[in-house]
Design brief:
Length: 379
């Protein structure tokens, strides 16, 4: 270990931690590393804890507190996720095919400007790569606010920039800036689940994490220059900043959460192994709760959430089964070991409420002594 890190593995592994997210979706780095090195769950856990510690220390040297990044990395239904759509064929005409660079100034100029605190946003970019033109057109027609009429000839014609953690005002500023480009098609609010969001979840790659005037970007090796795509960040007041991929991809990447049954299995399995090597087999745990917790959910401050989710009428055994199914379909966040030695995490799940999907948070505790998962809260 480095001189300024804990002196022993025991000190590192026993200390409290809070990891916002572990993601592998659209990146094979973690799974490939585990398989290539034939890592046991214990070895993988140690590797992830050490890499997260190094990331936290390296961010500190840049003046960034890792804890401050949660808003960009953990979805919040009170904050907007906006997709900007561009016609790559139009942008290519004036840029000899470099359409990503051609449209960049339009959206970069619209990123939130500091008012109170330091703005943090995850940025994903790419072409739509999956399904047919008709399927993509149908999904767009439901979700996109068109700036002009548009017909999908091929899905990859649609180039998308996706930005998280926006207020309504910030979202309006971003879309107005993007609309100045002639290739702009329109925008979609992707805060809630939609068919378009499922296409984007399969297609878009993490491009960067904006922190104030810095754009953190993953690079393949130490010393490599960030912003390999050559986007005009510096001209617009931002500083591209390199973070090694083994730290950026798993810990600073963003899930586009959509109902992709089975697509979250790899992420959730590796997230649970990061939480504890003993939790690795709990991809779909049977959730349980104490009678006191069940009563609290029925009568406490979270009663309204339970009612909105359609769960309030269930008996305790039926509720445990229902929550277990929801957690298996959700994505895991906020993995932590607190000062009392509790291993905690939360699952974000989508439930249809009055014709639209709403995101609920399920708080969970992994009981190391009996390898069980207990429900702690629902809201």
């Amino acid at each position: 270990m480095a001189a300024n890190s804990p002196t022993t593995w025991d000190e590192l592994l026993a200390g409290p931690f809070n990891i916002h997210v572990v993601t592998t979706h659209n990146s094979v780095v973690l799974a490939a590393m585990r398989d290539t090195l034939d890592l046991t769950d214990e070895a993988f856990h140690r590797m992830m804890r050490a890499d997260h510690f190094r990331l936290t220390r390296n961010l500190g040297e840049l003046g960034i507190a890792y804890s401050s990044l949660a808003k960009a990395l953990v979805p919040d239904h009170r904050r907007r996720e906006i997709a900007l759509l561009f016609d790559s064929a139009v942008a290519s005409l004036s840029s000899r095919g470099f359409y990503g660079i051609d449209v960049a100034e339009a959206w970069i100029a619209g990123l939130p400007r500091p008012r109170k605190g330091v703005p943090v946003n995850s940025i994903l970019r790419g072409d739509i790569l999956h399904d047919s033109a008709d399927q993509v057109q149908a999904a767009m027609d439901v979700s996109v606010v068109y700036d002009r009429p548009f017909t999908v000839i091929h899905p990859s014609q649609v180039y998308v920039v996706y930005v998280t953690n926006l207020s309504e005002e910030q979202g309006n500023t971003l879309t107005a800036s993007a609309a100045e480009h002639p290739a702009y098609i329109g925008h979609a609010d992707c805060t809630d689940r939609s068919a378009l969001k499922e296409h984007l979840g399969l297609s878009l790659m993490n491009s960067g994490l904006r922190v104030g005037d810095m754009i953190l970007e993953g690079v393949s090796e130490n010393g490599a220059e960030p912003n390999g795509a050559g986007l005009p960040f510096e001209a617009l007041g931002f500083t591209p900043t390199a973070v090694i991929d083994t730290q950026f991809l798993p810990f600073l990447g963003y899930h586009i959460n959509s109902h992709l049954t089975g697509m979250n299995r790899e992420d959730n399995g590796l997230a649970l192994t990061t939480l504890s090597p003993d939790a690795a087999y709990l991809e779909s745990p049977d959730i349980w709760m104490t009678p006191g917790r069940y009563g609290y959910l029925q009568d406490g401050k979270h009663r309204d959430s339970m009612e909105q989710a359609g769960l309030l009428h269930l008996s305790q055994p039926a509720l445990e089964v229902a929550v277990s199914k929801l957690v298996a379909q959700g994505y895991l966040y906020n993995l932590r070991l607190n000062e009392y030695g509790d291993l905690l995490y939360m699952a974000l799940v989508d439930i249809e409420v009055e014709g639209r999907y709403r995101t609920f948070t399920i708080g969970l505790r992994f009981k190391l002594e009996d390898k069980r998962v207990e429900l702690t809260t629902f809201f």
